[in-house]
Structures are given as C-alpha cells and as structure tokens.
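Preliminary data (for renewal application), manganese (II) ion complex.
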Amino acid sequence: MKKTQLFISSLVLAFVLQSCNKEKKLDEVQVPLPTTEEKAPMGNPDDVAAEPGAFKMMKLPYAYDALEPHIDAKTVEIHYSKHHVGYVNNLNKAIAGTELEKQTIEEILSKLDLENKVVRNNAGGYYNHNLYWEIMAPKKGGEPTGALAEAINKDFGSFETFKTQLTEAATKQFGSGWAWLVVDKTGKLVVGSTPNQDNPLMPNMSISGTPILGLDVWEHAYYLKYQNKRPDYITAFFNLINWDAVAKKYEAAKTPVPAVK
Ligand code: MN
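Predicted structure:
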C-alpha cells in the first residue's frame, strides 16, 4: 500500500512541477554551465594590434593552436595577445616624441642606455618575441642542414653538443630570461643566456652578437602546461625549431653589413 501511495504522490508532484514549468517564461530556462573540460573559444591572432606608434605588432605566422602539443594554444594566445602586445605598446609610449622613434629596433638596442629601464625592458621584449615566434613553426624540429649545420659542427663539435649547451643555458637561467644562439662579431656561433628582456644586441651583455634563435624561459611561456617543469618545455621547444628560418638569419648575420649611416 505504502509503495502505491508513494508512487501516486510522486506522479502528482511531477504533474504539478511540470505545470509550473509550463508557466515559466522561456528566458528562464537554465543553460548548463560549461564544464572545465570544455575549451574556451580561441581568439584570432590577426585581430591583435598594437596601439598606434612607431612599432607595429608582428603577424603571428600560425594559429594559436598550431604549436600543440608542445606549446598549448592558451599559452600562445596569452603570450602573443597580452604579453607581446604589451611590450610593443609600452615601447611606443616610451619612445614617443624622442629621437629613438626614428631608429630601427636594432639601432635602439645596440646603442641602448642600460639605465633607461623602460626602453630596455620593452625594446627587448619587442625584439625578443618577434624572434621567438619567427623561429618556431608547427611540425618542425629535427636538425639544420647546409651552411648552418656545418657551422654548428665546426663551432660546437656536433649538433648534440649544441643542443646540450642551449638546454643548459635555458635551464640554468635563474628566474625570467632568454637562451640564445648568437653569431658573434667574428662570425662564430655561441650559446648563452640573458636575464629579463635583455638580449645580445645590447651593450655589456654576457653574450654579444646577433641572435638567430631565442628561447623564452619566462614562466608565462610555459607555466599553464608545464608548471615548474621548465626542462620539459625546453625539450618540447626543440620539436618546434624552424631551422630554415634560423638558417636565413644565420646567412644575414654572418654577412658583414655596411656601417650605419
Ligand atoms: Mn615572453
């Protein structure tokens, strides 16, 4: 008996609830909240622009998710559309109305007054990130060929030794900074690192010359996916190096340039 009563009561309750529901307005319908597994919609890198100024935002040569699984889409999106554009805007603001506005980024960096921290950080941030995005591409990695491969063998002994040295420079850079492959003023390839947004074009750095490859080891470059495991991010980076792009930079860097006018 009790079971039957309970069943009937349930039916009545269900009917009453359904009737109430029918009286509700349509706009009260509850939309389920997205679960954490669902991905937030990605933006488009082509929509990112710096505020008007001397330097423009470089075009990202691939989609935000193109470097997956080595660097996740969200990290690339935040890195490019928040951090990188921030450096460009702050650089433009810092040099507005000064003679630096008419100079190339290489001129600004090579003649930099290191005490000018705003220009130092943001001119560095602008140049370094342009290089970083440029020397990566989806499904790359492997080893260089041609003149660059020969130079790496000559100056490091082997590609493996170069890889070990770059990995070590990137791992041991304490706190935020960059690891570099640089063509020094004698044309030799060297590896090293710099803190913050410093780079080898700036005066009085521990590594000096023209960077042809830059590896960002700021936490913002890897923390979402790798957390504290910087070495795993560094290993993954080697799967993304676009050696053709690095080789072009090598050719340009080793060719003597006419003195600045
Ligand atoms: Mn960065």
